[in-house]
Amino acid sequence: MLNLGFKENVIFIVDQIKSAGLKDLQCLMFSATIPRWVEQVSQQFLKPGHAKLDLVKDLKNKTSKTVKHLAINCPYQNRISTLADVLICYGGGQTIVFTSTKKEANDLLLSEKIKKDIEVMHGDIAQNQREVTLKRFKEKKFSVLVATDVASRGLDIPSVDLVV
């Protein structure tokens, strides 16, 4: 929420809770990544001597033994046809493709080279439509979800077979 411009809203909520007279307020902050600026902002909300728990530090950059990582060297101008080939070879089930921009997501949606049921999810799409799209994907109504990398956090879809 802090990264998405909601810092003032978070401060307002915490201030409202404090002003309600709750003396034993417990504040917990969760993040997939914690850049230095988030640590600095969190100091406003957390008590001195707070604990920082890193759930992945002991993994030493290891991934699940059931995850297979592949790297394909591809010139940028060939990315759509390469992705179409990857979807044919490896995308037998459900696939999520993450893009950096809304334009890239839309380009994939409109590509004639990708012969799969495909829908997009990004910031220019209304929140209620994004929720419908995500629900339809979870229900396996289409096989390829293209989303900007903003959506890469918080998606929990166990049936996904391939992530690009």
Notes on the structure:
This protein is an alpha/beta fold and 164 residues long. The protein has 2 domains: 7-57, no CATH class; 76-163, Rossmann fold. The protein has 5 helices and 4 strands, in the order H-H-H-E-H-E-H-E-E. It has helices at 7-19, 36-42, 79-90, 102-110, 127-138, and strands at residues 94-99, 118-121, 144-148, 160-163. A 4-stranded parallel β-sheet has the order 2-3-1-4, sandwiched between helices. The radius of gyration is 20 Å and the shape is elongated. The mean pLDDT is 81.
Radius of gyration: 20 Å
Which sequence of SSEs, written as H and E, runs from N to C?
Answer: HHHEHEHEE
Cross-sheet strand order for the largest sheet: 2-3-1-4
Give me the secondary-structure category. alpha/beta
Biggest beta-sheet profile? 4 strands, parallel
**How many helical stretches?**
5
* Beta-strand segment tally: 4
Shape-level CATH architecture of the largest domain: 3-Layer(aba) Sandwich
Beta-strand content bin? 5-15%
Q: In which range does the helix fraction lie? A: 25-40%
- Which fold name is given in CATH as the topology of the largest domain? Rossmann fold
Low-confidence stretches: none
Give the overall shape, derived from the CA principal axes.
elongated
Assigned CATH superfamily of the largest domain: P-loop containing nucleotide triphosphate hydrolases
